[in-house]
Specification:
- The protein contains 13 helices and 4 strands.
- It has helices spanning about 10-15, 20-35, 35-50, 55-75, 80-100, 105-130, 140-160, 170-190, 200-225, 245-260, 275-290, 295-310, 360-365, and strands at about 230, 235-240, 320, 335-340.
- The chain has a two-stranded antiparallel sheet. Strands 3-4 form a two-stranded antiparallel ribbon.
- β1 (about 230) and β2 form a beta hairpin.
- The protein starts with 8 loop residues before the first helix and ends in a 20-residue tail after the last helix.
Length: about 375
């Protein structure tokens, strides 16, 4: 027991929250969420200033911060050494294990994922310190729920920002980071005493925060991952966040709007993402990938989706009849044509105009991350 610390249970329950620590945790969490639009600027600056060194710089920062945190925690250990060293070791091992298991093979992506452990480790530690005086299981449950709530808000905001991707997989990654952060927090700064029985006040706090977290997660999944099945006899079934009646109406509205005000060729990081255009660009990307794989029929169907449901800004992109695509024969009676986007042809090929036109090159660079807009659900077997 630390000198001067109260042993009266009623006093511990009456003042369960360290107000200054809680305010600090809220401020840091808010800063993390609101920084989402500006993270891209930081990454671009690192890549432009130190070409080819992005992974080393970010990875080095992770290593330095992790080492400093571990050394600081070890210097605090005076009692219960076995349990506290074990908690620290489990936190580090969990982070390393998950980083290895979930590695994508892309060093840039992997190092960004590992930085989640730094971000949400800090968030978890700050909330843990704010509620540590409870001295019951709530000191673990409340920081975990608060961290998940922050992670959900972070991913939700990213979903509305161009060049950022918000999805449930990243929230699960944040959950692993929160778990490692809790183990580290217990090892670095355990409560003076601990009881497994939850006090009435703790039950109420956990219940309220759990309800808020569940509602936030449900809204996130509903907005980001759930969509409508667009059932079309000509193209089969595909997913959209818009209904069968809303999608054609929106296409007509966008077509009229883009005739007067075409969408920009470059995306502004600090802006509202046009989810309709993102869906359309995803179908363009899928069509071009099928073209590159010599799957003309699949590319044809993707193009039909674009023509019927996604307004296309007026461009001077070349248009050739699909019957001549890479030697694939298609019904000669079909009047439809396939607009080739700058990214649809292999670099250096005769159809690759992106290298000769800077504006087209910017459009080519505007591809969304290689992730479909809806990760839950699957394509219908009717589609090629």
């Amino acid at each position: 027991m630390a000198p001067g610390r109260s042993t009266d249970p009623s006093r511990s329950l009456a003042t369960p929250l360290r107000r200054a620590r809680f305010i600090l945790a809220i401020v840091v969490a808010t800063a993390l969420v609101l920084s989402a639009p500006f993270i891209g600027f930081v990454r671009s600056w690192i890549r432009a200033t130190f070409p080819g060194q992005f992974v080393r710089i970010v990875g080095g920062a992770i290593a330095v911060l992790a080492a400093a945190a571990i050394v600081a925690a070890i210097l605090r250990i005076r009692q219960n050494r076995l349990l506290r060293y074990g908690a620290l070791l489990a936190a580090v091992a969990g982070a390393i294990w998950f980083s290895i298991v979930e590695a994508t093979g892309n060093a840039d992506v992997d190092v960004v994922q590992r930085f989640h452990f730094v971000e949400y480790g800090i968030i978890t530690f700050l909330f843990y310190r704010a509620w540590r005086a409870l001295e019951d299981p709530a000191i673990l449950l409340l920081p975990a729920l608060a961290g998940l709530l922050v992670g959900t808000a972070d991913e939700w905001l990213q979903w509305f920002i161009p060049n950022r991707v918000g999805e449930i997989a990243d929230i699960l990654l944040n959950g692993i980071a929160i778990g490692c952060g809790l183990l580290f927090s217990v090892g670095a700064d355990p409560p003076a005493r601990f009881t497994w029985s939850m006090r009435p006040g703790s039950i109420l706090r956990v219940g309220r925060l759990a309800a808020a977290t569940v509602v936030a997660l449900a809204l996130f999944v509903h907005i980001v991952h759930l969509g409508d099945d667009i059932n079309d006899r000509e193209v089969g079934v595909f997913k959209s966040r818009y209904s069968m009646t809303a999608l054609p109406a929106l296409a007509a509205a966008k077509r009229a709007e883009w005739q007067m005000h075409p969408p920009p060729l470059t995306l502004q990081r600090v802006s509202r993402e046009d989810q309709y255009m993102t869906e359309g660009v995803t179908h363009v990307q899928r069509r071009n990938e099928l073209l590159g794989a010599d799957q003309a029929k699949g590319a044809w169907m993707e193009n039909l989706i674009l023509e019927k449901y996604y307004a296309t800004p007026r461009t001077s992109a070349p248009r050739i009849r699909i019957r001549y695509l890479r030697g694939h024969a298609v019904s000669s009676g079909s009047p439809r044509v396939l607009p080739l986007r700058p990214c649809g042809s292999p670099p250096g090929s005769p159809n690759d105009r992106s290298t000769r036109d800077p504006k087209r090159q910017r459009l080519c660079d505007r591809r969304p991350p290689f992730r479909p807009p809806f990760r839950m659900g699957s394509w219908s077997s009717d589609r090629p």
